Amino acid sequence: MSEERSLNFIEEIVEEDIRNGKNGGRVHTRFPPEPNGYLHIGHAKSICLNFGLALKYNGKTNLRFDDTNPETEETEYVESIKEDVKWLGFNWDNELYASNYFDQLYEFATNLIKKGLAYVDDSSPDEIAAQKGTPTEPGTPSPYRERSIEENLSLFAEMREGKYPDGAKVLRAKIDLASPNMHMRDPIMYRIRHAKHHRTGNKWCIYPMYDFAHGQSDSIEGITHSICTLEFIPHRALYDWFIDQLEIFPSRQYEFARLNMTYTVMSKRKLLQLVNEGFVTGWDDPRMPTISGLRRRGFTPASIRDFCDRIGVAKRENIIDVSLLEFCVREDLNKTAWRRMAVLDPIKLVITNYEGEGELLHGENNPEVEGGEGSRDIPFSKELWIEREDFMENPPKKFFRLGPGLMVRLKHAYIVKCEDFVKDEQGNIIEVRCTYIPESKSGQDTSGINVKGTIHWVSVPHAATAEVRVYDRLFRSEDPAGEDRDFKELINPESLQIIPKVFMEPDLATAQPGRGYQFIRKGYFTLDKDSTTENLVFNRTVTLKDTWAKEVKKG
RNA sequence: UGCCCGAUAGUAUAAAGGUAGUACAACUGAUUUUGGUUCAGUUUGUCUAGGUUCGAAUCCUGGUCGGGCAACCA
User: Fold this and answer.
1) How far does Cα A156 stand from its chain's mean position?
2) Measured between alpha carbons, how far is residue A66 from residues A50, A95, A106, A226, A430 in Å?
3) pLDDT of residue A1
């Protein structure tokens, strides 16, 4: 039933390559995270693209950690990345590390030295920066640029042996100091870092730079389509140059525009700041755009995959409306979440003419599915909690809820009519008094009465309680990273609202972790990892679409 | 002032010289025991100026605007 979809520009390239028999029609991609932070929704776009291509064209995808900078990388990040990729629903063909190739990379570097295409430079970082010139002026040669091959070879070996301190020397490619592409002006290939690496330990004290690791790793793995983001476009010339000079498998690099989303920051650096400076509780704070944050918030893998599918892949800078993500998760949860009732901001409703102990009513788990996926019992009694906002002393014309003399249906129960209400000394409504229509019982209504509104409720004596965490967008600005101010000043102070005691139907006391629940009329919720059997904690994933709220706003 | 990308409704994304379409958002209305869902519909677009062509979002030229490029980060 899949409707014909047009190809994105990368799929077009891949199909063109297959048609031409390039690489024997083989398609091999890779997802290459640096293990220096947690994955976010922007990475999900790249993951879906890379793994999606392999799935679509019967190819393979490697998970390769780009771990060439021991100072920022940690095993914790490796583990979280693996968990997130798996959770999104993808299986990699090989788990690999750029650090696997350190020996090979060292050989490659030596080869270039032997060809007179690389040299050891003793210049300081400042001197090298100065030697690069500016975009409009050519660079100038380092005084060490013309060292002999033999000298370079032995110096480079000494660098590896640990004879020099950090920063004393680097290995540079000898390319073109006048190139209009700054990246071709004798880029650094290796630097000295006496740092322990999370995988190779203290074996190395020289580490390759991105440009001398990424393309070579692609090539070693036989990657056919190396897909990265737009900022690497100027690196492509270098990527190709190294492959040409080394005469190794010609992987090809293609660039697409990274994902940006409204009301969100997406750089790992900024997300790290939010974590380190305590603006959020961690990488998996449900307000974070990280995969782990979204998971904890209650987003489903299917909804994120669907989102990535809908946003498309192109080369133009973009900023996706976060409401699309919300739409995707609502669409998925609407079909899968079990319906339950919970009252977040309670007032009491007393049914004055209801006699007896109460009764057990029934509600199907999921009205979107044939058969409702079974049902649960809902205890009903004379005293109920209802939502404060479902009663108004002086309701406007189109208010289909409770008010003096107004009737509503209690979901899965009876129609009630408001007869009276009670206020406290401050004038707050604390109780609504109603009569019910005994013949209006849900499913066997013979009353003939039609009411416009239905509200949710929870029986007072039977109610379970839980903490509910209500989230709003983390930033007040549509483009927090794009404004002049520090993005942290734009944090929404109301991004988290904790409701310590919410009344809910007792069935929710046995809610299952990882399952989505729709609290009828209030939104989608899921159990938080802080939840215990004694103290339930729910996160609000997303609200329901609320056309009434819009109506109210308009006045 | 150099080089490199890019420009289609509010936001994204199609149309490979031949009817500018789709999704989200917004707005109407119908249905509804969730003001949810579903359904029907409406509004809104090819950066600009020339050129090629029977015909241009698409090809060519100039301009405008936006973004990127000078980490021992990736």
Assistant:
1) 42
2) 16, 11, 16, 13, 60
3) 32
Whether any strand B atom is under 7 angstroms from the Cβ of A378: the reply reads no
Parallel/antiparallel/unpaired status of strands A383-387 and A407-410: unpaired
Residue A181 amino acid letter: N
CA of A188 to C1' of B61 (A): 40
Q: Give residue A4's pLDDT.
A: 61
Show which residues of A are catalytic: 34, 258, 268
Q: Hey, what are A97's tokens?
A: 């590390």
Indicate whether A356 pLDDT > 90.
no
Give yes or no for CB of A202 within 7 Å of strand B.
Answer: no
Residue A4 (CA) to nucleotide B23 (C1'), in angstroms, measures: 14
Nucleotide nearest to A450 (CA to C1'): B33
pLDDT tens per residue, range A392-428: 999 998 999 999 999 999 999 999 999 999 999 999 9
Mean pLDDT for chain A? 96
Closest residue by C-alpha to C1' distance, nucleotide B34: A521
Q: Check whether residue A469 has its CB closer than 7 Å to nucleic acid strand B.
A: no
Contact A23, A59 (CB under 8 A): no
Catalogue all structural domains in chain A, each as residue range(s) with its CATH number: 20-256 (3.40.50.620), 268-338+466-554 (2.40.240.10), 342-456 (2.40.240.10)
Q: Model pTM?
A: 0.96
In this complex, the answer to whether residue A372 has its CB under 7 A from any atom of chain B, a nucleic strand, is no
Task: For residue A331, say whether its CB is under 7 Å from any atom of strand B.
Answer: yes
Tell me the residue type at A134: T
Burial class (CB in 10 A: 0-12, 13-18, 19+), A151: middle
